[in-house]
Each structure stands twice: as structure tokens, then as C-alpha cells.
Amino acid sequence: MRTENDRLPVTVIGLGSMGRALAAAYLAAGHPTTVWNRTPGKDGPLLARGAVAAPDVAAAVAASPLVITCLTTFDATREALEPARGALAGRTLVTLNSGSPAGARATAGWAAEQGAAFLAGAVKNVPAAVGAPDTLLYYGGDQAVFAQYRQTLQVMGGDTVHLGEAVDLAALYEMAVGAMLLPALVGFFQGAAALQSRGLPVDSMVPFAGKWLDMIKALLPTYAHEIDSGDYTDAASSVNLFHAGAAHDAELADEAHVDTSWQAPLHELVRRAVDAGHGEHSVAALTEVLRKPAPAA
Length: 297
Description:
By secondary structure, this protein is an alpha/beta fold. It has helices at residues 17-28, 44-48, 57-62, 74-81, 101-113, 143-153, 169-178, 181-197, 206-229, 239-256, 264-278, 286-290; strands spanning 10-13, 33-36, 52-53, 66-69, 92-96, 117-123, 136-141, 159-164. An 8-stranded mixed β-sheet has the order 3-2-1-4-5-6-7-8, sandwiched between helices.
């Protein structure tokens, strides 16, 4: 059974690597696809596949009921769309960019002023994975708007999730989950430098690093339960264990001539947790140290 989403015209604004992947997915799925980019010259392969290049951003918005932006930030999105104010009324704007929850709320308010429906989303994978059945995208905003376009949104990734009515939820989860990325990568890079100090190839650690990440993934439900319940007493890995490990990091720095100074704030966080009486508690108790008191009214 066909629905109105099957061939819904779509506009993609922002043709970086991710934006090009989004537009390509819609073309592959048979959607009339209009594209526009602030800097010209990135749409060639898309035009060859049937995309239509809009002469300006207002024409790009006017071409489709569903407008998907893939720019760097919420500020950049509003700036790029400013000349299209008059064309946004009655359309649905979906943003897929980085930024804070406050930025998402500001953009939702701006879209409402233009008479546009709004969803703020995030793509949780690399451009090459766009369109795959297991690629995750999640959204915050009006449930009815999400339901109306869900089939079309799933073209970008089969694992399409509505987080809730609050427009800033995707930005919140994006920052909450994304906070894990840089520390994990820098840890891998530190390990790579340590192996190279011994003349060992970095790719030799990849299988073990993968297993390590699998182990961490398996622990996350336990840690989430401890944090939600506030009970850290059943400690498989205590704060004290991590506190003692700081000395090992210092020894590695001396032996392998590796800069481990990026870990100093982490060691300080662990020390503060010990000072706060969490030494024998699960390492998940670091959450209590990270949580700041709400400002006084």
C-alpha cells in the first residue's frame, strides 16, 4: 500500500559529506530532491543522479513541504535560512546539526515565528551509513509532525526514534552520548603512542580495544541503574580502584614518553569522589561529583 510519504518532495540544505549522503539516500528512494548549499560546487554528483539545484535558499525551501538542513550549528541554520523567511510558512523544518539544547529551543521558536512546523534531530552514524536499516536518527518535537513524516524520515536511517515532545531532546541526547567520544578516542590514541614507543604496530591493539569497548557497553545498564537508584554500594569497580590507577598512568608516561596530561582532570575528579566518601562505592558515583547544585532561585 502506497502512502503520501512514498514520493514526497524533499529539500536538503547543506551539502557537506553528511548532507550529500542524506540527499543521495532520498534520490535512491525515489523522492524528488532539491538541494542547496551556501558554497556552490558540491552538488554535481547529486545533479547527475536527478537532484534539482535551487538557485537560492528561498527557492530551495519553496520546492518541498519537508526541508532538511544539515549545517554545522543552530546559529548557522538560522542564518542560512534567514532569506527564506517568507517561504517557510506551512512547511516542516527538520534540523540535523550539532548544538546545545538552548540552540534547539531558540531555533524552534524562530521556526514557529515563520509558521513552520519543526523537529530537531541528530544522525548517530557516519555518512556512509546513511540509509542503512540500523542507522540511528532521533528527534525531539511535535509527535504529530513526527508521525506525519516518519516514513520519509526513515529513508535516512531505519532506526528512527522520537524522543519526546520537547524540541531540545535530540540536542540533549546528542551531547550526553557524544561526551563519551573524545575521551574514548584520546585513550585509544594514547595507547597507540605507547605501543609505537616499543616499535609495535597500532593495528595490533584494535581487536583488544574492540573487546574492551564491548565490555564497557555491557556495563552501561548496570551503571545506569546505579545512577538512577542512587545506590552505589554494590561496587564491581570501585572509585578507589581508579584512584590507585593514576600512579600507573604516571609510570606509563615516564616509560613510553607519552603525554598523559589530558588525564589530570579525570584523576582530579576521582580524587574529589574519594574525598566525598565514595572511595568504596561503584565508579558510577562519579556522577554525584559531576552533578552541580541547581542555582538558587
